[in-house]
Description:
This is Iron-sulfur cluster carrier protein. 34% of the residues lie in helices and 25% in strands. It contains nine helices and eleven strands. The strands form two sheets. Strands 1, 2, 5, 6, 7, 8, 9, 10 and 11 form a nine-stranded mixed sheet that branches. A two-stranded antiparallel sheet has the order 3-4. α2 (32-45) packs across α9 and α4 (111-123) runs parallel beside α5 (143-151). It is globular and about 60 Å long. The structure holds adenosine-5'-diphosphate. Adenosine-5'-diphosphate binds next to α2, β9, β11 and α8.
Amino acid sequence: LSWCKKSYIQLCTIPNVKTTLAVSSGKGGVGKSTTAVNLAVALQLAGLKVGLLDADVYGPNIPQMLGLGQTDVQVIDTPNGQRFLPLEAFGIKVMSVGLLAERDRPLAWRGPVLHKIITQFIHEVEWGELDYLLIDLPPGTGDAQITIVQESPVCGAIVVTTPQQIAISDVRRSIHMFCQVGVPVLGIIENMSYLIGTHGESIPIFGSGGGQQLAAELNTPLLGQIPLDPDVCTGSDTGKPIATAISNSPVNQVFLQIAGAI
Ligand code: ADP
């Protein structure tokens, strides 16, 4: 990845947005959106101004995870023309393809349609001043992901995986995609790393060492290992991400640690 890291400092061209980071995964279901939401909350709790763009066109779940339900996006007039007004939850500015009214959603997210929507979502949103804009990408390495990454002024990417070997081989592809488009990978987050047993012991449900092995192989940091915890799931389903509950739970500690590392 050494050549990839040369492009580390890229100019972020969204006015007033300091850093734009993509949150991605090699495959679906590894907890990418959950991680993006809780990381956004952890950054916000650290006193930073945070925006979250849900660009997961195949499964835009972020509004539900933040308790925003079916709220419609407002369009406002500004001196620079019409702009989408992001919604707000837990102090985070949120925009999602899931917030588009049904009639505005394309049946197929093909290149030109994606290009138009993503460009609008990035450049025609009244984000205001942000320290971080996190972009939740669709899983995988297809056309949709490449279009979004190329259309967005992304400064770096974070890749979420589980420790399972099958997930790991997909992550390699994902990291190579970012290198090909010149986006540096800031690190890997391993989710569902272990379950905490009744006696406090770690139970590696999906195997262990995958994230560490990959981080070493690709010379990129392992930013954190998030335990498997039913409260994470409940938090997402009820629209109250676990990181919003100020507690010393191991899950919250890991999100705070990752927020401090990026
Ligand atoms: P992806 O965005 O990768 O498709 P999601 O974030 O939607 O994945 O997560 C998939 C499912 O796994 C959801 O039901 C979510 O609540 C659950 N989940 C994610 N991370 C954890 C975790 N650390 N502990 C328990 N459940 C989790």
